[in-house]
Design brief:
Layout lengths: L2 H12 L8 H16 L2 E8 L7 H14 L4 E5 L7 H4 L7 E3 L2 E3 L8 E4 L25 H14 L5 E7 L8 H8 L5 E6 L3 H16 L4 E12 L6 E2 L7 H7 L3 E7 L1 H9 L8 H23 L1
Parallel strand pairs: 1-6, 1-7, 2-5, 2-6, 7-8, 8-10
Antiparallel strand pairs: 3-4, 8-9
Helix pairs in contact: 2-5, 3-10, 5-6
Length: 303
């Protein structure tokens, strides 16, 4: 019996809990399976923010594209269980193929493997709900979400990947960074998304401090909605006063890119047709991907 099984058995024994359903064994087996699956993934990154509506899923989708266009084997895990939207941004309507060895995820642009709760919904407008003893609740209970995330990592046949990007839910709810870090102790780091808004930065600052407290390395920050590109004159018009430079300096965090709002980007996400590789925003994300790749490779070399 492993140490984890002994610890769980001890806890359950004190609670006088009968594990007739073998829940303890299922959790331990599932955790070991996560380790095996993730062992084939070279780099694991999370994309997070302390604020909703900052363009985190857009960032995940385009950063994954940048890695894939550079010739890397990429996977994307959409952990926004209640509002999955990564498949929409890629124009995907797939289903998992269930096999004895696990679930084969749908394949998106450039051969990327995509896992999302959206692939389980019968209809596009269906809500994601846990229909149990709290059937009327419109949200997933924390424990249920944790189990689903673990199963996404363990049961899906990710195969050999160079990069797995994990899109955390809006606000990166308090339990998600430690849950992900617990499932994947060898996480390479997090990319934080913010806007120049002072209100947003106030919340993002707290999220960064919290993530660092639970041992999640910070790779850098992407400033989204950094002004808007005029469709007529192609110049950038600022939306907010200032930017995220001061926040990055205060937290000793690299500013990876300043992504302007562009109607072409909005249309690309809505229609599921990614921006062309030579679009200025695509080039920005290509630069971020290269920076992260070089940083992680240099870190490995130093170790």
């Amino acid at each position: 019996m492993s140490t984890k099984e002994k610890d769980l058995k001890s806890i359950l024994g004190k609670l006088k809990y009968r594990d007739d359903a073998k829940v303890m064994k299922q959790i331990v087996d599932n955790t070991l399976q996560v380790k095996l699956r993730m062992g084939k993934v070279k780099r694991k990154l999370v994309v997070m923010s302390g604020k909703g509506g900052v363009g985190k899923s857009m960032t995940t989708a385009n950063l994954a594209l940048a890695f894939a266009r550079a010739g890397h084997k990429v996977g994307v895990l959409d952990v926004d269980l209640n509002g999955p939207c990564i498949p929409k941004m890629y124009g995907m309507k797939g289903r998992f193929e269930i096999t004895p060895d696990g679930a084969i995820p749908p394949v998106g642009p450039y051969g990327m493997k995509i896992a999302s709760m959206d692939f389980f919904l019968k209809e596009e407008n269906s809500a994601v709900r846990w229909k149990g003893s709290m059937e009327l609740s419109p949200v997933w209970l924390g424990l249920m979400e944790m189990n689903v995330i673990r199963e996404f990592l363990a049961d899906i046949i990710w195969g050999d990947l160079d990069y797995l990007l994990i899109d955390l839910p809006p606000g990166a709810a308090a339990d998600k960074p430690p849950v992900i870090a617990g499932f994947i102790p060898e996480l390479d780091g997090a990319v934080v998304v913010a806007t120049p808004s002072q209100v947003t930065q106030t919340v993002v600052r707290k999220s960064i401090h919290y993530a660092r407290d639970v041992g999640l390395p910070m790779l850098g920050l992407i400033e989204n909605m950094s002004g808007g590109i005029c469709p007529e004159c192609n110049t950038t018009v600022p939306f907010f006063e200032g930017g995220c430079e001061d926040l990055c300096a205060e937290l000793d965090l690299p500013l990876l890119a300043k992504i302007p709002f562009d109607t072409c980007l909005s249309k690309a996400c809505d229609t599921g047709k990614p921006l062309e590789e030579d679009h200025v925003i695509s080039l920005n994300f290509a630069g971020v991907a290269l920076h992260i790749q070089n940083f992680l490779e240099s870190k490995t070399t130093l170790v």
